[in-house]
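Saturday, quiet lab. Running sequence design on the structure tokens for the scaffold JK sent over.
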């Protein structure tokens, strides 16, 4: 495809007007102010459109679309224990399949090309991911409350398949990660076993870390260590890790994360809605920590439109720290794109540059909220809506365009999710 006469956000998220961008063999092959001689196939009319890197959502629980609007107005521990866990006990692979497709649909329609997920029900999730064509770093949520050996757990068997049969599927779009749900839902024996498994297989790891003050302080009471120091002690950070939330980090924790190259998956909408607090993102950025963006699940957000989290990421910390210069639009866009790609180990993705993977999205700029376009970056962060996305491309393949999903029967998916949620609720 050749995008013609289109405005774009370059590698520094600066606006370039009336450009030509050629996509070939899944990569960006040409960027210039004049039309290339090479034939790139379909010519896309870029008038009143903005081209930019697609988004990377680095913390989600996709099948939790089934719980949207169900578990509400409760603190985290009650939210989990009274609502989420009982509902999840009723989910099966078929429900997870449709819940995952619904989540992917929502992400594609709002410009997301890749997501990192921590959940269960791989018999439903994996087919949904592969059929949709989206990219995903998938991990099997691991919780254990007894003295079981890691190799005796269902999660271990899923992890073996994930790292063997499924890792690298769909030309590398699916990557298998390992997971520790959190310190408070595991024990040192299991944490060390997962850390060893990751070292042996070269896997990345996804965890929750210091999401709430209660979690953070109780970990210190149990182990005399913050959650970050605890995970470091037991070897989790020996492998590339994405740590979700990190709201209650203490001074030494920032050094630990920076030293080990841990990515923080900041989830501002979820943290605000569950009243978990405000992550110290300015200090993370000042410390040189890679900070990316996640939506969390639809039960705690309640949507998977990462542009909402971009807006909050761009404004909340200005208010909390009473400094309007904290976090620039370029830093917001970096967190939503390149930082997320790096967190997934996709080093050739997340930038609009020649040679990079063609994970791209197109926004309609012929709207009231995009007028005038004094700064495209500011408009995307502070004014744009998920509905402004007109196209989402993954490795050069168009998966969503002008309201149409190319790989998903959205009407069937919506009906199946409603039916299965209603069935589960009738049993609770």
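Result came back. Writing it out in full:
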């Amino acid at each position: 495809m050749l995008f013609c006469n289109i405005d774009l956000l370059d590698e520094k998220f600066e606006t370039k007007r009336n450009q030509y961008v050629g996509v070939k063999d899944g990569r960006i092959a040409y960027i210039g102010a004049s039309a290339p001689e090479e034939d790139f196939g379909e010519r896309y009319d870029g008038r009143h459109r903005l081209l930019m890197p697609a988004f990377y959502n680095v913390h989600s629980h996709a099948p939790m679309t089934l719980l949207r609007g169900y578990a509400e107005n409760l603190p985290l521990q009650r939210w989990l224990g009274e609502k989420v866990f009982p509902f999840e006990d009723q989910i099966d692979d078929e429900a997870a399949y449709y819940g995952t497709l619904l989540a992917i649909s929502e992400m594609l329609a709002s410009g997301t090309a890749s997501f990192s997920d921590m959940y269960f029900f791989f018999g439903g999730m994996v087919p949904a991911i592969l059929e949709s064509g989206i990219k995903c770093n998938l991990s099997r949520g691991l919780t254990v409350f007894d003295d079981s050996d890691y190799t005796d757990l269902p999660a271990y068997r899923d992890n073996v398949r994930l790292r063997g049969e499924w890792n690298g599927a769909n030309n590398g779009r699916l990557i298998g990660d390992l997971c520790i749900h959190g310190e408070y839902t595991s024990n040192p024996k299991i944490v060390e076993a997962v850390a060893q498994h990751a070292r042996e297989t070269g896997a990345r790891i996804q965890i929750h870390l210091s999401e709430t003050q209660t979690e953070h302080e109780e970990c210190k009471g149990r182990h005399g260590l913050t959650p970050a120091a605890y995970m470091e002690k037991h070897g989790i950070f020996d492998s590339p890790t994405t740590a979700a939330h990190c709201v209650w980090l203490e001074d030494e924790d920032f050094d630990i994360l920076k030293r080990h190259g841990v990515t923080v998956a900041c989830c501002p909408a979820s943290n605000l809605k569950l009243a978990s607090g405000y992550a110290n993102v300015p200090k993370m950025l000042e410390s040189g920590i890679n900070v990316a963006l996640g939506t969390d699940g639809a039960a705690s957000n309640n949507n998977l439109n990462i542009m909402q989290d971009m807006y909050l990421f761009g404004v909340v910390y200005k208010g909390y720290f009473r400094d309007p210069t904290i976090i620039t639009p370029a830093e917001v866009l970096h967190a939503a794109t390149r930082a997320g790609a790096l967190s997934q180990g996709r080093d050739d993705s997340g930038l609009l540059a020649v040679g990079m993977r063609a994970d791209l999205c197109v926004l309609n700029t012929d709207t009231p909220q995009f007028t005038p376009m004094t700064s495209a970056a500011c408009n995307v962060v502070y004014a744009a809506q998920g509905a402004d996305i007109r196209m989402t491309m993954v490795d050069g393949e168009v998966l969503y365009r002008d309201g149409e999903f190319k790989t998903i029967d959205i009407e069937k998916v919506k009906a199946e999710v409603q039916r299965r949620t209603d069935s589960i609720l009738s049993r609770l």
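Notes for JK: DSSP finds 16 helices and 17 strands in the chain. The longest strand covers residues 15-24. Ask whether to fix the surface positions before the next round.
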